Amino acid sequence: MSIIHRRPELAAQMAAQLLHPGVLDEGLRSGLFISGLRRTGKTTFLLNDLMPALEEAGALVIYVDLWSDTQTSPEKLVHAAIKKTLAGLQSPASNALKKLKKLEGAEIEGFGLKFGFKLETLGTAEGPTLAQALTEVIDQAKTDLVLIIDEVQQAIASGEGQQMLLALKAARDAINPRPNTPGHFLFIGTGSHRALINELTARRNQAFNGATSVAYPVLGSDYVESLLIRLTNEGATVLPSLTAANHAFTLLGHRPEEMLKALSQLNRSLPPGGDPDEILPVIAATLRSMTADIELMKVEHLGSLAIAVFARIAATEGEAKGLFSAQAAQQYSSVVGREVHIEEIQPVINELLAANLIMRQGHGVYALIDPFVQEIWRERQDLATTPPRGNTKAH
Questions:
Q1: Cα separation, 255 vs 37, whole angstroms
Q2: Using CA atoms, how far apart are residues 197 and 35, in angstroms rounded to an integer?
């Protein structure tokens, strides 16, 4: 994204809820998982707003992106990020140490932190557990430690990653319930795979079962307004009204990059005397349809049964149930053109989940990941079933 839209108020609110929770926010200390579609600004918000707000409030923050190196295991990436931060804390001149606003004790003021273990042993059989290492950090720094893992769903793709999540849960359970603990361990996981993020907190076999799962608060009218102001200041003359721009941004799924594309096309294609408010919705609708096409092509590549199952979910208002029923199998059979057996359905459901097309919302309950993909699909179904005007048969 070429333009960073800062959201300091939202970040400050979230930091306060995490570090100084009221009664209704205490559950955040069990873990916070934030899910949202790709290219809606999650990572930008984490790096430019939430992390600085947490640090300003006195917390020590460690960030790791599991998509930064897909060839390295999530466990190694997390251990490397923790080691790097702890190494910095051993030097009194480190930026990490300077950022801590609430340090107490002469040892910390005059020197760096001193750990009772060698950093290189972290993550090995000879070294401390994550619970032991993070407990030492919090006890010496006397502040909260926040670990943010971006694209956290990558961790459950391997046994090592799942063990790492269990180790982080063990650290949470070892640190947070202590009477008079000098700080808490807070875990934030974010990801674009909403189905898997949801399962990380909803399934009993997951380490952070019961933690808080929320949708990423997407950019809104304030972003659109600031974008139009910036374009005006740069001398742009082809500009839509705020109302039309907000409508286009909503059509585009609140994706900043797509909005910039739409405005760029508007400037290139508006005919002399044309009305930007008339042309921008057409451009946005076209880009929206192209984005949906990419997702719908994924369904087609999974085969005819996947298309039938996806169609049943997409056609349902709200949560889709009964996908494994005999009635559903009959419906699939009519689409596929052969008899579909009940035992064939679960593998296809799993493929749709893995492709980030649908998400499980409860036992036997499913929904589409992207609401505007569902809207496009329904619009096309309506067009396919509506006869052309003037083509009705006379009786």
A1: 9
A2: 6
* Sign of the torsion formed by the C-alpha atoms of 367, 370, 372 and 377: negative
Q: Do residues 72 and 228 make contact, with C-beta atoms less than 8 angstroms apart? A: no
Q: Which long-range contacts (CB under 8 A, 24 or more apart) does 99-104 make?
A: 99/55, 99/60, 100/58, 100/60, 100/141, 100/143, 101/55, 101/56, 101/57, 101/58, 102/58, 102/142, 102/143, 103/141, 103/142, 103/143, 104/142
User: What pLDDT, on a 0 to 100 scale, did the predictor assign at position 91?
Assistant: 74
User: What's the CA gap between 3 and 361, in Å, rounded?
Assistant: 35
Q: Are 7 and 52 in contact (CB under 8 A)?
A: no
Average pLDDT over residues 64-85: 90
Q: What is the mean pLDDT of residues 33-39?
A: 87
Q: What is the pLDDT of residues 308-341, one digit of tens each?
A: 999 999 999 877 899 999 999 999 999 999 999 9
Residue type, 128: P
Structure tokens at 38: 């790709």
Q: Are 284 and 244 in contact (CB under 8 A)?
A: no
The rounded distance, in Å, linking the Cα atoms of 295 and 347 is 19
* Model pLDDT for residues 88-113, shown as the tens digit of each residue: 888 766 666 666 644 554 345 555 77
Sign, CA dihedral 212-81-138-102, equals negative
Backbone angles phi, psi at 300, to 5 degrees: -60, -35
Q: Where do the DSSP E strands lie in the chain?
A: 32-35, 60-65, 145-150, 185-191, 212-215, 358-362, 365-368
pTM confidence score: 0.78
Contact predicate 166/47, CB 8 Å: no
- In this structure, what DSSP letter does residue 252 have? T
Token pair belonging to 369: 């990941």
Give the C-alpha separation, 202 to 206, whole Å.
Answer: 8
Which amino acid belongs to residue 182? P
338-362, pLDDT tens digit by residue?
999 999 999 999 999 888 788 776 6
Query: Which tokens is 40 given?
Result: 């809606």
Q: How far is CA 10 from the centre of its chain?
A: 16
The pair of structure tokens assigned to 209 is 């079962």
Query: Do 214 and 34 touch, CB atoms closer than 8 A?
Result: yes
Between the CA of residue 4 and those of 34, 55, 79, what are the distances in Å?
Answer: 20, 20, 30
